[in-house]
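Model: You mentioned two targets. I'll fold them one after the other.
Researcher: Yes, keep them separate.
Model: Target one:
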Amino acid sequence: MRLYEKTDKELIHSYLAGDNTSIEVLINRYKSKIYTSIYLLVKDTHLAEDIFQDTFIKVIKTLKSGSYNEEGKFLPWVIRIANNLVIDYFRKERRTPIVANNDSFDYFDIVSLADESMEDKLVKEQSHRDLRKLIQLLPDDQKEVLIMRHYGEMSFKEIATVTEVSINTALGRMRYALNNLRKMMGDVAELSLRTTG
């Protein structure tokens, strides 16, 4: 079996057995999602890269120390480490995380467009740009939950722990975020109908 066909658990075991290539495969498997979740919170490419590296230094130390026990939950575990590092950074800076739009990194790049026609690609890319702009308009607490849930694949329990709120609060923020996005999309569609009609 080739390395990239192995499960996260198998890769972790082969890394701990001395195969350093396994950790590279694991990092590459999730780097887009992990980097994206960091970048959306810090809105700075250099800072996101630093925190991304710090995250994997911590991941490797934890794996080597034998204290990793999140069987089958590698990605949410790494996202949780990354988010804790982001929170630590903002606590030091005494600032609150604000997500901003920066066209140099499009976090919808992680969506595969390989099997589509050029027209489909263009339509999807435009939709993603529109959605990205709308996400920027959400209040920070709603944006944070949306990012962790959809890009970090974190459970609401994990989100509640990282953001230090109750599960009900995390669920409520997600519900408000989705309702606000739906409303904004409806407003955009109505406006485009008026301008084209």
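Model: Target two:
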Amino acid sequence: MEECLFCKWKQEKEKMILENEYAFARFDDFPVNKGHLLFMTKRHVKNFFETTLEEKNAIFELMDKAKEILDKKYNPSGYNIGMNCGISAGQTVMHIHVHLIPRYNGDVENPRGGIIDGAIPRR
């Protein structure tokens, strides 16, 4: 069985933006927008519902710190926070990861509904 991509990433310390005891953050290799970050647990866990309370808190602690960094570096006007849990929800790497996507005025014509309205396009 092939090793998990995100488990390999935890060894790449030079690419980590932030880390704590249970989680780490790094820029997405395929960013949706400038500053797009991913937050992952250090322990291999399939999805959000399998994480411990400590892991959940660790991810959100890093997200708060990352927002401060992104605000200073890129000055976005908003953020999307999202995760996919399961193949039918669009998860392609079976290791919990949370996206923090900076948003900028005018980056899409009509941002109403954010990422949620596009989850099931026909609706």
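Researcher: Noted. Anything on target two?
Model: The first strand starts at residue 16 and ends at 19.
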